[in-house]
Amino acid sequence: FINKVLMEYLDKFIIIYINNILIYNNNIIEYKLYIYLIFKKLRVIGLQAIIYKYKFYIIKIKFFRFIITTDSIYVNLIKIIIIIK
To answer: Which residues span the membrane (predicted)?
Structure first.
């Protein structure tokens, strides 16, 4: 459902997995605009975000089997080792 609602933004500045929304951009002004657009869109369709559960302005994040930074994307080797065992 959330993928359909935010389809116009997918792979432009957001990634969605189930109910996890990752908003990304290196430009802080554009990033703030993207946050506003996403929350506005969610509000329009009647969804509410619990703001304290969100993290903003993160420069390094673990997202599934990856570690994403402002410079690159790495495989999270700890996750791979756990899967292999």
So the answer is: 63-84
Cα 1 to Cα 23, 47, 65: the distances in Å are 18, 11, 24
pTM (predicted TM-score): 0.73
Q: What is the pLDDT along the chain (85 residues), one digit of tens a residue?
A: 888 889 999 989 988 888 788 888 888 999 999 999 999 999 999 988 778 888 888 888 887 788 888 888 888 887 677 767 6
Length of the chain: 85
Token match 């996890």: residue? 20
Residue 68 CB neighbour total at 10 angstroms: 19
DSSP 5-67: HTGGGBTTTEEEETTEEEE--S-HHHHHHHHHHHHHHHHHTT----GGG---S-SEEEETTEE
